[in-house]
Every structure is written in C-alpha cells, then in structure tokens.
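2024-03-11 09:14:02 DEBUG pipeline.ingest accepted 1 chain
2024-03-11 09:14:02 DEBUG pipeline.ingest length=275
2024-03-11 09:14:03 DEBUG pipeline.predict start
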Amino acid sequence: MSGNPYQEDRGNKDASITNPKGQGTAENTRKKGKATPAPGGPFLIGENMTGGYGKGPDILHDCTIAVNPGEIAVIVGPNGAGKSTAMKAVFGMLNVRSGHVRLDGEDITALSPQDRVIKGMGFVPQTSNIFTSLTVEENLEMGAFIRKDDFRETLHQIYDLFPILKDKRNQAAGELSGGQRQQVAVGRALMTKPKVLMLDEPTAGVSPIVMDELFDRIIDVARTGIPILMVEQNARQALEIADRGYVLVQGRNGYSGTGKELLADPEVRKSFLGG
C-alpha cells in the first residue's frame, strides 16, 4: 500500500460526493418506524446492541460500534464472532432486542433498511453485490435509484476515485475481476451520496495485491469525509488502516481502540493476529 495512512491527512478533500442532509428528495415507500432526535455522541453508533435473526437466539450481546466523519472503523474477530451480524444490525437487517442505532443526531433503531438508505446509509454486502449482466455504468446508475437530481457529477467523481471503472464503463460487470467488481459495488453505494459507507468483507476472495489496492481506494473514500465502517477477515491489514478497531468475541466487544493500539496489544496479537 502507498505510504503510512496514519501519517496522511484524511481531511475532506471532496465533500460533494457526500450528502450531509441525507436523501431528502427520495420518497419513503416502506415505513417500519420513525426516526427520533438523539443529539450528541458519535456520528454513527450501534450502542449496546443485543439481538439475533428472527426468533433465534441472540448473537450480539451488548455490542457497541461507532465511527465519525473521515474515519475508518473496522470490525474484526474470529469466525462466528458476530462481525457481519453487528453490521447488519446497524443496517436494520435483524432485530435489535435492546440497544439503539443513531445516525447524525437521530435514533434510527425503528427504521427499515430501505429507510436507513434514505437517511444516508450506504451498504455493500459481501456477495451478490453487483448486477453481472449490466454494464459497469449501468450498475453505477442503478445506485442512484433513490435520487431525483442530476447524478452525472457524482458519476464523474466515482470515475475519478476508480479510474479502471471509467475504462471499463461499457463492459458487462460480470466480466470483471474480483477486485474490479468490488470497486463497482462500492461505487454504486457512493452514487447515493451516503452519509456513511458500510462494507462487509470487501477484500474477501481477492489476492493480496488486489487487497492492498482496495484498501488504498477505501482510504481515498475516507479522505472525502465519509465515515467508513468495515468488517474484515484480514485483521492485521485492516487494523493498519483503521482509525478505530473493534475485536468481537462471541458477539461481545472483546477489545477496542485505535488500529495502532490493537496492533500493539499483546493479547490481541496472540489471540487474533497470529502472534
């Protein structure tokens, strides 16, 4: 990867790709609940979350994760620790039986995933995250489905962030490499002009070289001011670029701190980073 991300300024280099007011022009077609004012605290936080899927047992137990503008926060831990479940809880894809999710001064715990997208959440799942039969540009345009304004400027910004996508804009997305597909998926999420971007294992199944390239692009996105919450299996590499890190163990917060602090923690290194 290029340079040391801890020594680089992650100031807002191009805030126009974000939308600090969320998607106010979109029509809300499905309502599960409503947002309520909740000022103060981190920009995005899933606080003291306990819950699981359907009527099954709880997977998360009093779990808290948070991220602020311009930061990269990563969730790491062993298989089955609840990493992806924690992110899905923040996104509203499972019931939180206790705890709260707050975004930009509002409690959004009662909102459906669709409504959270309208409020400004961008979510990139680990798999099935592109339309393989559509071109790269058509995939990106699909990302603007909730917008009613002219999104061409945002499209150009995505091409600036991911130049390879501009080169392949007329190619079917299904013909791209794994790393290029992930860039399409991230780009499509950015087309909504999100307040926060959430990535579920963006480097799964790619080579180490491609992983480094993807992490470089993720750092570039964070430099625009967008908070990034990311689940990663490649714990050591993810913590190297992280402003905040959360190590989950059996659905609970095991360790938390800056990326540097967790990398230097002997217990974290021994138990989760291979010594």
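2024-03-11 09:14:41 DEBUG pipeline.report Residues 136 and 169 are 5 Å apart (CA to CA).
2024-03-11 09:14:41 DEBUG pipeline.predict end
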